[in-house]
Design goal:
Helix content is about 80%, strand content about 0%. The protein contains 8 helices and no strands.
Length: about 180
């Protein structure tokens, strides 16, 4: 009688074991890159793509759990390649958001200024100048409130108090000249 052949061959088991190990290695690399891009503010400058990547990563995980390890390897590799493309765009994104941030500040558009500087600061965690300016930019709402209060003080015929308040406001962001 012929031997009873049941289950996968040892080579198939070995191949699946290698694919499972590779999938885990790739999943770890993918996770590290997702975390890195999240730390660089991807939720601010490309939330749609971040959501798609996270959804695709969950789908790849489901494929792995279903023990389709080779398909999971391909899915993780594809996602890593996609993130590498995003990574190559970072210098252009920094330049774009720097221009938008500076333009919004020049136009005295507080909402846009805060938005674009937050993105630029997230994209540039190592740039001390950008981080220092971002800390000053964050004072704009307080400065605006102080300017409004100073207007009320002038209307109430209290110019000295208004000048004192505007002096304090200018100390919060010395390099900025309000309109």
């Amino acid at each position: 009688t012929a031997p009873d052949v049941q289950g996968p061959s040892p080579l198939a088991v070995a191949k699946d074991k290698l694919a499972r190990e590779e999938a885990l290695t790739l999943a770890e690399a993918l996770l590290r890159e997702i975390i890195r891009l999240e730390d660089l503010g991807m939720r601010l400058w490309d939330p749609e793509q971040l959501m798609q990547i996270n959804e695709a990563a969950v789908a790849a995980d489901e494929t792995y759990r279903a023990e389709n390890h080779q398909i999971a390897v391909t899915a993780y590799q594809t996602l890593i390649e996609r993130l590498e493309i995003v990574e190559t765009r970072l210098p252009d994104l920094r330049a774009r958001y720097r221009a938008l941030a500076e333009s919004a500040l020049e136009d005295v558009n507080e909402t846009e200024t805060l938005k674009y500087w937050e993105i630029l600061a997230a994209l540039s965690p190592e740039d001390a100048d950008i981080q220092a300016q971002w800390r000053q930019i964050q004072a704009l709402p307080q400065i605006s409130a102080m300017m409004t209060e100073a207007e009320h003080l002038v209307q109430a015929d209290e110019p000295n108090a208004a000048i004192e308040l505007l002096t304090k406001a200018s100390e919060l962001y010395p390099d900025w000249t309000p309109p």
